[in-house]
Design goal:
mainly alpha, Arc Repressor Mutant, subunit A, Four Helix Bundle (Hemerythrin (Met), subunit A), 2 domains, 3 strands, 70% helix, 5% strand, disordered N terminus
């Protein structure tokens, strides 16, 4: 059994999925790490049927892969796959910003500031789950301003697919501080109506975790 986590009382499918999702998002389970059914059964006091359904749920979220003779593993990405994912993210996010009314409307700015303040407070408290949630809310507020809900939904979906890549930064104080500075700069560019700067900062902000993930791959190889 994995000794890095405490056993939990009998848990239902939804609870187990959320716990394992957090384990993956926050890097407590590493890329390509096996999810052993017997270990999960022991940890959660769950039936094998429930554990298999949880693995199905995590697979549907893009966090786990199943392969013949290898079982279930935390998703890992080849460098080419990372490039392709981030190419699409970059195109989608840049297009959303190009569609936005600028300066960004005051109600959107207010929501972005609210999320930014929440992010600051969560980081000060050392609450990485809330840091993650406020970060997602900040970017949702920004991209919802593009006026195309299908486009903003696709941006969110591709951000979700890259959670295992982004996870390296969620517990690093220096990384979090840099992200907060970039959030503040994004707000200022949105207020100023500076589209080129907004695109530039957003692309830099998006690519930082990709670079950290590739560096970690090189270090592990």
């Amino acid at each position: 059994m994995d000794q890095s986590v405490e056993p939990l009382a009998r848990a239902d499918r939804s609870t187990i999925t959320k716990v394992l999702e957090a384990d993956i998002v926050f890097g407590r389970r590493l890329p390509d790490e096996r999810l052993v059914e017997d270990d999960l059964i022991a940890r959660f006091g769950a039936t094998r049927h429930t554990v298999r359904r949880v693995i199905d749920d995590l697979s549907a979220l893009g966090l786990v892969t199943r392969e013949p003779n290898r079982g279930a593993r935390v998703v890992s990405f080849a460098p080419s796959e990372i490039d392709h994912l981030y190419e699409i993210r970059g195109l989608l996010q840049a297009q959303a910003i190009r569609r936005m009314e600028l300066p960004v409307p005051s109600d959107t700015i207010a929501e972005m500031r609210r999320c930014h303040e929440g992010h600051l407070l969560a980081a000060a408290d050392g609450d990485n789950v809330r840091v993650f949630e406020w970060n997602n809310a900040f970017h949702a507020a920004l991209f919802d301003a593009c006026g195309n809900p299908l486009l903003s939904a696709e941006i969110a979906a591709f951000a979700w697919r890259t959670h295992p890549i982004r996870s390296l930064g969620f517990t690093d104080p220096d990384y979090i501080a840099t992200a907060q500075d970039e959030h503040a700069a994004i707000i200022e560019a949105a207020i100023a109506g500076d589209r080129d700067t907004l695109v530039s900062i957003d692309q830099l902000h998006m690519m930082r975790p990709k670079d950290a993930y590739i560096a970690s791959m090189i270090a592990r190889s």
